[in-house]
Automatic annotation (TrEMBL):
GO BP, sorted A to Z: DNA integration
Lineage of source species: Bacteria, Pseudomonadati, Pseudomonadota, Gammaproteobacteria, Enterobacterales
Record InterPro entries: Integrase_cat-core (IPR001584), RNaseH-like_sf (IPR012337), RNaseH_sf (IPR036397), Transposase_IS3/IS150/IS904 (IPR050900)
The organism of origin for this protein: Biostraticola tofi
The protein, known as: Putative transposase
Gene Ontology molecular functions: nucleic acid binding
Signal peptide: none
PROSITE patterns named in the record: INTEGRASE
Residue ranges occupied by any Integrase catalytic domain in the UniProt entry: 1-155
Pfam families for the chain: rve_3 (PF13683)
């Protein structure tokens, strides 16, 4: 969860967000005026059903905020057979994946630095950001494919095609390539847990 500043100084909206760390895809998000465990639990439940990963071995890593440690969220986690994991107290980098995502969110050129006028504006902005991040943003940690491509398992063929293009270019002009091909292209494995 992260805070989204309102135009009124010292007031915030709260972005609840679930990221799949394998694909880096934003799989669930909601913006609310208050932070509480009921919002977090409802988002988790809807996301698990939408992603069709009910009763699969999942781990939910969260910070130590009250909503993330609430009894409501814990009950939903247990119902869905999700293992809970929490950051160490006062260690903000225990969840680098979502911290990196939140930095991207707050540093994109269209970030409303003056704050959001109202809840609806914040929700619409997060909707647009999520669509851009999942479907257009080429993520460096997953080989410069989009999180959606990785999530759908399309990354393997895209990376294989990219490798073929680089190898063909290297054969045409080998002197331009002073380093091994691995420097120019990264391959990632697609893992499926059954």
């Amino acid at each position: 969860m992260t805070w989204l500043a309102q135009r009124v100084r010292g007031r915030y909206f709260y972005l609840y967000l679930i990221e799949d760390i394998f694909s880096r895809k934003i799989v669930g998000y909601e913006v609310h005026e208050e932070e509480n465990g009921e919002h977090a639990a409802a988002l988790l439940h809807r996301t698990v059903l939408r992603e069709r990963c009910y009763r699969q071995p999942l781990v939910l890593h969260a910070d130590n905020g009250a909503p993330m440690k609430s009894r409501t969220l814990k009950a939903i986690r247990e119902e869905l057979n999700i293992t809970g994991s929490h950051s160490r107290p006062r260690v903000s980098n225990d969840n680098p994946y979502v911290e990196s995502l939140f930095r991207t969110l707050k540093y994109v050129p269209l970030w409303p630095s003056a704050g959001f006028v109202d809840l609806e504006e914040a929700r619409q902005w997060v909707e647009r950001f999520s669509r851009w991040y999942n479907e257009e943003h080429r993520h460096s940690a997953i080989g410069y494919v989009t999180p959606e491509q990785r999530h759908q398992g399309q990354d393997s063929s895209l990376l294989a095609n990219r490798k073929a293009v680089y190898e063909a270019a290297r054969k045409i002009r080998p002197k331009r390539w002073s380093k091994p091909l691995g420097r120019y292209i990264r391959f990632t494995a697609h893992i499926q847990i059954i």
